[in-house]
Amino acid sequence: MINKILFLADVHINTKDEKYIYITKFKKKLFNCRENWNANIVKNEIMKILNFSKETINFEVEERFEPFNSTGMKPDYLKLRITYEMLYHFVEEMLILNKYYEK
Fold this sequence. Notes:
The protein is mostly helical. 48% of the residues lie in helices and 0% in strands. It contains four helices and no strands.
């Protein structure tokens, strides 16, 4: 799963796609150099994805990923509560769209 997330983060996908936004945010959450980063955190987060956890992912959307519509309001998808199960499906869908399994 880590390889899949890293693959998608490195592919130049339409950055306005909400699925890509959440995948990228999750990658940054896992590998951002922070004081409390450690391998156990990464392992636990990946296990939640692989176990289709219904738990909501705790991360904030960065300013540069927050596209605004013509009224200046954020799109509704940025207000969604994304679960680990949803993120798993986002990853798989994006991998199929980017021909990851055709190699």
